[in-house]
Amino acid sequence: MTDLSLLDDPASVSRLCDDIARAGLFALDTEFVSERTYHPQLGLVQVATAERIVAIDPLAVPDLSALWRLVADPTVTTVVHAGEQETRFCLAAAGALPGALFDVQLAAGLLGERYPLSYANLVERVVRARPRQGQARTDWLRRPLADAQLSYALEDVRYLIPLWERLRERLARLKRDGWLTEETERRLAAVQKDLSAPRWERVGGSQGFGRRALAVVREIGEWRETTAQSRDLPRGWVLPDHLITAIAQALPRAPEDLRRLRGTERIRARDVEALLAAVERALRLPESELPARRRPGRPPPQSRMLGLLLEAVLESLCAERQVDAGLVGSAHALRDLVAWRLADAKTEAMPSLLQGWRAELCGDLLEKTLSGGVALRVRDAAAEDPLAVEPWPLAGGGREAQRSGMQAEA
Predict the structure, then answer these.
(1) Environment class of residue 285 by beta-carbon count within 10 Å: exposed (0-12), middle (13-18) or buried (19+)?
(2) Which residues contact 281 (CB under 8 A, 6 or more apart)?
(3) Which of 37, 239, 334, 342 has the fewest CB atoms below 10 angstroms from its CB?
(4) pLDDT one-digit tens code per residue, 26-82
(5) Lowest-confidence range among 126-140, 277-291, 396-410?
(6) Element of type H or E holding 250
(7) Which helix (H) or strand (E) segment is 70 a member of?
(8) How far apart, in whole angstroms, are the C-alpha atoms of residue 160 and residue 158?
């Protein structure tokens, strides 16, 4: 792998795509700039195959749909590290999710490495090499690229296929390759759902708002989305979240009312008119057309204590099974499990910890813990895994036995 060239013509890119299609395997990374525009701007695409490492200049070859169709092809394995942005590029360019994605960061977490682990640290731990660093703040849209910048970018794919080889073998040996497939599909679906969800629902600071205020957030949020797209600007440059929520609370009806809010001095006069029109639309909506209030569920009073117990049990199990506990379930996921378990009517969807590979790994143990069937004690305070999770004799003996069993022995 000695060809460190920059491909800047369609014919060279086409030949590369033919090589990838024949091989059925390649590594991919991208460099992009997202601070100044509505969509991230692709500045460089790095590709590694078994024979070569190259970069593609998307400013010289803007139509890379053939490459993204290969990413979407289920017969071609695409190896990435933390590939969410590559997934988004693929959806935009090919209209489809990646077909056979292998994310080495995710695979490593399923094998006991810390998640998320940086590319450089993962290469050091698994391949025993050290990638070159030092160009993280490069403006990838500026030309020409210096040799140091190009070399740095190519390092990001140099070790991806060796990582794929080692991690794939370890996953197969532990029968966790199915875990990776399931988790990859879940994350790809989450990206697709995120792209299709109304952006106004993610305006920060609107939790607990009444329905009328939420209608204002919706009207202004939709205006901001359309405006940001038409001006090709980041949403926050058009109007930051905190001003959307401030307007929704103040309900200004005239320009002078809006200008009394801090931070509105930079809003253009024509945008002031648009914002006031959005407020008026929201205020005139009938009750039947107002968005539903988003009431955060109040957790049971014991959920924090039980969540901490489950967290300790999960950490101990994951240390023993060599899986990163943070990848398996966050503190929020554990509290969701507690709330679902204590609910009289299971109206919510089954918690993620009781589904798929997570259920296989820890579902039964967590359920037993909540039923009083598990005791937790300190086995060796100086050990890397200091806890012992053991069966509790009173399991299944009724509510009193369950309460007695829900204890930590030291």
Answers:
(1) middle
(2) 219
(3) 342
(4) 999 999 999 999 999 999 999 999 999 999 999 999 999 999 999 999 999 999 999
(5) 396-410
(6) helix 241-250
(7) helix 65-72
(8) 6
CA–CA separation, 167 and 161 (whole Å):
10
What's the order of all strands across the beta sheet hosting 374-378?
387-391, 374-378, 408-409
Structure tokens at 144: 């020409």
Nearest one of 222, 210, 217, 273 to 242, comparing CA atoms: 217
Find where tokens 């590029």 sit: 89
Bridge-based pairing of strands 41-48 and 53-56 is antiparallel
391: its two tokens: 């069966």
Cα separation values, 36 from 32, 40, 100, Å: 11, 8, 31
Pull the structure tokens for residue 357.
């590979």
Chain-centroid distance of CA 124 in Å reads 24
C-alpha distances in Å from residue 177, one per residue of 157, 273, 357: 22, 56, 11
Residue from 110, 104, 141 nearest 123 by CA: 104
Contact 47, 54 (CB under 8 A): yes
Q: Which two tokens stand for residue 272?
A: 């002031």
Question: Is the alpha carbon torsion for 54, 58, 62, 66 positive or negative?
Answer: positive
Q: Count the alpha carbons within 13 Å of 58 in the hemisphere toward its beta carbon.
A: 23
pLDDT for 198-236, tens place per residue? Answer: 999 999 999 889 999 999 999 999 999 999 999 999 999
Say what the pTM is.
Answer: 0.91
pLDDT in tens, 332-372: 999 999 999 998 767 778 999 999 999 999 999 999 999 99
Quote the CA–CA distance of 119 and 409 in Å, as a whole number: 40
**pLDDT for position 410:** 35
pLDDT in tens, 298-310: 778 898 999 999 9
Q: What is the CA radius of gyration of the chain?
A: 26
Residue with tokens 């998307």: 58
